[in-house]
Each structure stands twice: as C-alpha cells, then as structure tokens.
Amino acid sequence: MKTEPIFQTLADLNIPYEIQEHKAIFSEEDAKDVVITLEGIDVKNLFVKDKNGNYGLVSMNLHRRADLKKIAALFGFGRLSFCNADELMQYLNITPGSVSPLCVMFDTTKTVKVLYDSHFEGRNVIIHPLRNTASISIKFDDLKRFTEHFGHNWQLGDFYVAPNVEFVPLQADDAPAISEMSAMATEILRDYYDPIIGKEQNDYMLAKFQTVSTITDNLHHGYRFYFVRCDGHNAGFMAFYPREGAMYLSKFYLYKHERGKGLARQMLAFLADETRRASLSAIELNVNKHNPTLQIYKSLGFTTIRAEKIDIGGGFYMDDYVERLEM
C-alpha cells in the first residue's frame, strides 16, 4: 500500500482504489500524451468563484466543455471566474495541476461548495491522489462518501455545453469510409472486449465480423451503419437492421474517452426514431453475460427475454442475454 497520508485516509474509510503512476500532468494538453489504462471517467476539476466571495469545486468529464452559466446557476453564484494559485493553496491546500475532489479534506471551514457531474453515477472516476504524477480509479459512490466524511454536502448536475452530434450513414460504395469504419471498430472492440472474453476469442471475432469485406457484405444485406460524430470528430459507431418484427441493434460502441457524455442516450433516441419510421415494434440486441453495460441497458428500459449460447466457430461461443426494448 502507498504510504502517503491520502492513501491511509482511503484505507481508513474502506475505499478501494487502483493506481497508475505517470509523468506529471499540468494541463489538458499534457493529459493527451498520457495513456491512462484505469477503468472509469477521466476527471478534470475547476475551482471557481464569484465576486461575492463564494467558492466552488467542480468535478467533470475531462473531455467535455463546461457551461459556466449553468454551473453558476446550480451553485446559486453570480458570474464565475477561475481561482488563482494562491486561492487554491488557501482553500484546498493544493497546487495547480494536482487539483482533485479529494482536496475537500483540507477545506475545514466548509467554504467551498462541491458540484459533481451527474453522469458519474454508477461509474468509476479517475482522479489525482493530491499529486499530478499519479491517477487513481475509485467508485463514484465512494467519492461521495469521502466528501461527506469531511463534512461537505455535494450536488449533481448536467452543466455541459451541448455537443453537436451527427449520425453519418456509411455507404456500400464508399471504400475509404468502410476501411475507416473497420479500423475504428477494431480499435474500440479490442480495447473493450479483450478483458471480457479474452484476447484469443476477441481476435477471432474481429477477424470474422469487423473486416472490410464483412462490413461491405453487411451493407449489401440490409445493415445500416452510422458513424457517430461529436463536434466534428468520430466518437463511435452503430449498426442495425430489421429482424423478425424488431430493429436488431448489432453494434453500439463509443471510444473509451467518449463514454460518460450522454452520447449513448442520443444514439438510442436516434435508433428509436428509425425503428418507429420502419413501423417496427421493438429494439433487440445481444449482450454478453459478463458485459458491465448490461446494467446500463437495463436503466434505459431494456428487459431480458432469453439467454443464448451461439457457436461462432473456431471453438468459440457467444454467451449472451437477448435484451428487448418495446416501442
């Protein structure tokens, strides 16, 4: 166990964590050069104030843009500005670059209000352990418990600048775009499924289902593929087709750093609209029994209708639940 006081505090509170040491990160630009392999939402923190002497600590998704007017309204503050290094040290006992929601332990006068991203619920968050040369992953529920232990109330909010999300269809005659889709699918699914089904089976499935030739064949047999673009860049992809009176959702994936932004709900809303346009009564999909997103689908209204074990060749099986959402 680490011997720094913060780790002893986490141990005293029975808060488990995973840690990754890395080079110093002082800014979002620095963070782009560090590959964090921990599970969870990458967090950045804003220390803000208004002219009336109110102070707030905001923990949010690293990859999103904050709407300061929304934050001010949630806090009940006036127009916001960012605190300087002296104020960071005075109220949070921390230097720039190392700010963390764990800093609330130093605010003994309870001057600083705390605001958390509502999308953290049910997830792990990746934060600095009071120094910018390491990151830890802890459950958000444990972070809330830590905050309360040190006498701070917290509130949840959605305070982001709304992303511009587009669903760009993939055409069967667009060979470069199909190659782009295949490469993106391979990258996302290798990162996501290796820990769930193992590298050997995932390699087999990628070679079977995510190649240029397979995607091209899918397109010629009624599949509809879409790039999911957020603020002009590819955030993920999805594919679906009509099957037995329902819209079958074959692919529904985002890059790791794009998760936790609310994009999945927008993707599902788009799919629901397309399902209704096709006069279909439900959406169905297969979910691996060990896939943690199963609970997310449940929260979106899906119910399990059966279990399936499908032989996909090579000595491998897909061991799934079939989930259904009625329209």
List unreliable stretches of 5+ residues.
none
Which sheet architecture does the biggest sheet show? 8 strands, mixed
- What structural class results from the helix and strand content? alpha+beta
Q: Provide the succession of SSEs.
A: HEHEEHEHEEEHEEHHHEEEHEHEE
Shape: elongated
Task: Please work out how many helical segments DSSP would assign.
Answer: 10
Beta strand %: 25-35%
Describe this structure in words.
This protein has 327 residues and is an alpha+beta fold. It has 2 domains: 5-157, Alpha-Beta Complex (YbaK protein); 165-326, Gcn5-related N-acetyltransferase (GNAT) (Aminopeptidase). The chain is built from 10 helices and 15 strands. The chain has helices spanning 5-12, 28-31, 68-75, 85-92, 140-149, 175-197, 199-209, 212-220, 263-277, 294-299, and strands at 18-21, 41-49, 55-61, 81-82, 112-117, 124-127, 134-139, 154-157, 165-169, 224-230, 233-243, 246-254, 282-288, 303-313, 316-326. The strands form 2 sheets. Strands 1, 2, 3, 4, 5, 6, 7 and 8 form an 8-stranded mixed sheet that branches. Strand 2 (41-49) and strand 3 form a beta hairpin. The longest helix has 23 residues, at 175-197. The radius of gyration is 22 Å and the shape is elongated. The protein starts with a helix and ends with a strand.
